[in-house]
Amino acid sequence: MHRYAPSARPQRRFHAPRLVSRPIAVPRAVTRARLPVVRRAVFEPALLPLPPAEFQPDPYVDYGRMLTEEGGILIAYKDLDLRLRHTVWRVIAWSCFTGSEGWFLRDHSPVQSSWINLACFVIVALVNWLIVRKPVELYRQIEIRPDCLILEGAEVFWRRFMESGWPSFKPDQEGNQVLCGIYGTRYVEYLTARRFDEFDRMPKVFAAHMQDAMRQLWTTTHM
Questions:
Q1: Domain for residue 184, yes or no?
Q2: Which of 75, 121, 128, 195 lies at a C-alpha separation of 20 to 30 Å from 218?
Q3: Distance between CA atoms of 93 and 134, rounded to whole angstroms?
Q4: Which residue has the higher pLDDT, 95 or 114?
Q5: Largest Cα–Cα separation, the chain
């Protein structure tokens, strides 16, 4: 038989934990130096004040062009009224005012010198003439329709009677534009677009717009 020799059991040793002191946290005050603020000057170009958006000067002085309900093109412009009755009115007005002032200078003038009174009469007559000699201005209108041409809303010229060709503009000696042509069997001057001064180009602009309107409306009708 086998013998078992008794052996001593291993003994466990218990070690007591060693106390270790915790490190003491020392509070530290951290101070940061303030960085200098860099300010950069931004260059802004000086902007000129713009005009209001709603203000736009109109280059067409005393001139207008619009469409009508009848399918036509209406052009309105300023013209001079050179009829004889205005000339007669000027002469009558100048005679009345100058005659009354001449009567006052002759019979009731406080100045006894006849030469001074005569000089005053000449000056007064000249001033009165400058006042009444200004021409009368009025607005005229012409409408181009697919079948006719209407002046001042009253005179109608039908397209079918312009068999020899459309009306055309011709310059006169004063630089005005005269719209003329053959209507039926007659040579007709429809209107005259007069300029007010040497820089006025309204007659040429008016002629260009008239020709464009006739080309747009009458070419389609003719075809």
A1: yes
A2: 195
A3: 13
A4: 95
A5: 188
pTM of the model: 0.60
User: 107, 134, 161 — which closes off a domain?
Assistant: 134
CATH number, domain of 221, equals 2.30.29
pLDDT, one tens digit per residue, over 88-97 is 888 899 899 8
DSSP string, the chain: ---PPP-PPPPP-PPPPPP-PPPPPPP-----PPPPPP-PPPP-PPPPPPPPTT----SSTTEEEEE-TTS-EEEEEEEEE--HHHHHHHHHHHHHHHHHHHHHHHHS-S---HHHHHHHHHHHHHHHHHHHTSPEEEEEEEEE-SSEEEETTTEEEEGGG-TT---EEEE-TTS-EEEEEEETTEEEEEEEE--SSTT--HHHHHHHHHHHHHHHHHHHHH-
Q: Establish if 19 belongs to a structural domain.
A: no
Same domain, 109 and 89: yes
Residue 52 scores a pLDDT above 70: no
**Do 99 and 120 share a domain, yes or no?**
yes
Co-location of 154 and 94 in the same domain: no
Phi then psi for residue 195, to 5 deg, are -100, 150
Domain contains 170: yes
